[in-house]
Amino acid sequence: MSEALDKLEQDVLARKEAKEAENKNVQEANRVKRTLKRKKWVDWKTQDDEDAANGVKRAPFDPADRIKRKKSAILLSYCGANYFGMQRNPGMQTIEEELFKVMLKHKWITEDSFEQVQIACFQRAARTDKGVSAARQVCSVKLPEELNLEAFNQDLPEEIRLFGVERVTKGFNAKDQCNARTYTYTLPTVAFASSSEETPPDQETYRIPPELTEKVSETLKLFEGTKNFHNFTSKKNFLDPSAKRFIMSFTCSTPFQSPQGVEFVTLKVKGQSFMLHQIRKMVGLTIAIVRGNTTTATLERALTEERLDLPMAPGLGLVLDTVHYERYNDRYGKDGIHSPLTWEAQEQQVREFIEKYIYANIYKTEAEQNNLLDWLSTLHYHSYDTRREEATTEAGGGQKKNSNEDDDGEE
Questions:
Q1: How far apart are alpha carbons 40 and 203 in whole angstroms?
Q2: Three-class secondary structure of residue 200 per DSSP
Q3: Residues with Cβ within 8 Å of residue 259, at least 6 apart in sequence
């Protein structure tokens, strides 16, 4: 009997010791966790000496990492003639690449943001393709409060200028908050001369008659309203909801002469958003109709389910003119904290830049290279009828893209 009691006592004692050991382990684990959570004091001199012995050097502290940055909207103008578009593209010379390099140099963005601009919440209002310029491009990005625009612009190429910075709301997005975009297309009036003439008119001496200007305006007006523009972009079918776009206005200016003596007009189109190549195809078809290569019946068919072969005008004359923020301005522009994104104070500087770099390049290139005249000679190759193949070569086309996404910047 006593042996049984002794054995029971030993079992109880053993369980008690095991429990105490388990509790000690738990306590030790909790102590380690608490220690790890505490912020340890680091003796950097000792740490640096140890790292140096191992061939490791601590990165120097970058004050830019501690600068407080707030969401801002920037007003940008550029001539895209020598660039492969607005959007950053590895290995290519683009507007954004030049912009980001200078932002990094002036500590407007950090090294991490330069590598991944999403960190700085960067967003453009519209994309522009190879060779396409912008008069008033707007981008949103987090920037420091103290900025030196004059010093910044000195480090940018002369054909790119940043004219203004405005503080915006935390949730502002240059693309999403933009409720309309205006583009212009500037071209010699000789483009509208009748194609039936045996001898093509001279670009320098041609002057468009008033009745032909009126025909241009009437044709452009046919694009206004909400219509299905699947024929005016790439790889979109009629049933795709995104093929429907709202064109608010499409007008033609009065003729004017360039410094070289060539007569030009400027077509101006305003819409909520545009698809890849949409504006250039609308301009291309308008020219073909006015010249007599086809009729307005082709335009009417192009807005139906049929898939037609339509021309696309060259990219040289296309300019992103203005991005509109009426809804944002109505809601926040008068709250006493934020300014409306109308950029009135910068308008004179912007106009001077446009004339000197953007339009001057269009006038000079057309006079020297006859881009549009060469393109006009390809109009008769188009059938203006149902396409037999889903993919056709676009005469006068620009840079190809793999994406079928909306550009919201046309090109």
A1: 77
A2: coil
A3: 360, 363
Reported confidence tier of residue 394, pLDDT bands at 50, 70, 90: very low
pLDDT score of 244 more than 70: yes
Q: What is the DSSP letter of 84?
A: S
> Are residues 173 and 247 in contact, defined by beta-carbon separation less than 8 angstroms?
no
Model's pTM, two decimal places?
0.79
Beta-ladder partners of 137: 76
Nearest to 310 by CA among 393, 250, 207: 393
Q: Measure the CA angle with vertex 307, ends 301 and 313; round to 5°.
A: 80
Highest-pLDDT range among 125-129, 213-217, 380-384: 213-217
129 is a catalytic site residue:
yes
DSSP conformation class of 308? B
| Token code pair at residue 35 | 């220690």
pLDDT digits over 173-197, tens only? Answer: 999 999 999 999 999 999 999 888 7
Report yes or no: 191 and 376 within 8 Å, Cβ to Cβ: yes
Tell me the CB-side half-sphere exposure of residue 73, using CA atoms within 13 A: 29
Among 65, 129, 321, 374, which one carries the catalytic annotation? 129
Q: What per-residue confidence (pLDDT) applies to 316?
A: 92
Q: Which amino acid is at 28?
A: E
- DSSP character for 334? T
Across 204-215, b (16+ Cβ under 10 Å) vs e yields eebebeeebbeb
The single residue listed with the structure tokens 């006593």 is: 2
The residue with greater pLDDT, 247 or 34, is: 247
Structure tokens at 174: 């240059």
The rounded distance, in Å, linking the Cα atoms of 33 and 284 is: 70
| Tokens describing residue 353 | 């830049």
With beta carbons less than 8 A apart as the criterion, state whether 60 and 121 touch: no
**For residue 295, is pLDDT > 80?**
yes
Whole-number percent of the chain with pLDDT over 70: 84
